[in-house]
Amino acid sequence: MTITNSQIDDEGRYKCFSGPLETDVKELKVEVQSTSSLTIGSAIADDADVYIATCRATGGRPQETLTLMLGDDPAPCDGFLEYTLPADAGFSSKEIVCTFPATRENYGETLKCVISGHDVSALNGEITENLEMHNRPCNDIVTVTFESLDPNLRVTCAIDAANQPFPAIRHYFIYANDILKHESSTGINFVALTESEYDLSTEFECVAGNYLGNTASGKKTYGPQKTTEKLMTSHPTTEYEEAIAGKLTTSHAKTDYEGETTSITSEPTCTPCPRSLTGLRSGASAGIAILAILLVVSIIINIVQFVLLRRRTKPEFDGSKMNEKG
């Protein structure tokens, strides 16, 4: 006997008879593969970045089991919720939600939702997503700005909204002469200093970052003639410049947070930063100007050489022959 296009109503025990004798009994189970999905969101919980993973399976039979794995291990869920969703009679639908920390260690890892519970192994399965939705900050996006609050001074780590990575920078450190004056993990990016805490020669520096890494401003003095911001130069990389790139420690004593985010084993990409479209660098402009001058000089030399050559090859006028003809 063959049953095609089986329905739930076909499920049950089937007996086979040969004459008056029962020869065999078979049980028919109807299994249906669910429609499944895995989505990953991002949030902030207790001043920390977290992932929120949601795995959903709808319209399956029998009821399936959903398991979240991070790499080869169970996902480290700080919060785990399981919901039974509405479904047609004879079918089941469910959803699980797992909240776990976003860390440098799990950046780029594969999150997997395993769907099981079927006797027909082909109906079991898994869905995967990579944890690559976050970005580290780009270099050169933070600057030090000043605002006089006579007699105090407000120092701010300024970042354009368009340059913010995802998740946005919430960790800020402000230094005065390499002494930490302000630290925040909640996005407060400024500090007000009293007269006794600064003078016109005080060098200020901002370090800002998210859990994937830090970026730093150049050092800058409040005195208008003493700006020492880090520039792009062709000289050998200094220890400070390497520190900004995350290769060495910074020039000041690192905080615990800075120490945790300086070296990243799995290097994430930074948020694309706007690039200047105002024209060529001054060095390139100067080079073009020199080439133009050399071209003009070359043309003038060629003209002079051509005139001199014409004079040397022109036949001389012989007046004696005209006299003879006369």
Provide structural commentary:
The chain has 4 helices and 19 strands. The chain has 326 residues and is of the alpha+beta class. Among the domains are: 35-130, Sandwich (Immunoglobulin-like), CATH 2.60.40; 143-262, Immunoglobulins (Immunoglobulin-like, Sandwich), CATH 2.60.40. Strands 13, 14, 16, 17, 18 and 19 form a 6-stranded antiparallel sheet that branches. The chain has a 4-stranded antiparallel sheet with strand order 3-4-8-7, with no helix packed on it.
Secondary-structure blueprint:
Elements: E1 12-18, E2 21-28, E3 35-45, E4 48-60, E5 65-70, E6 73-74, E7 79-85, E8 92-101, E9 110-116, E10 125-130, E11 143-149, E12 152-158, E13 171-176, E14 179-184, E15 190-193, E16 203-210, E17 213-216, E18 219-221, E19 227-228, H1 239-244, H2 256-262, H3 282-313, H4 319-325
Antiparallel strand pairs: 1-2, 3-4, 4-8, 5-6, 5-9, 7-8, 9-10, 11-12, 12-15, 13-14, 13-16, 16-17, 16-18, 18-19
Percent helix:
10-25%
Note the beta-strand portion. 35-45%
Along the chain, the helix and strand elements come as: EEEEEEEEEEEEEEEEEEEHHHH
Low-confidence stretches: 225-250, 273-285, 316-326
Helix/strand-derived category reads alpha+beta
The radius of gyration computed from the alpha-carbon positions, rounded to a whole number of angstroms, is 38 Å
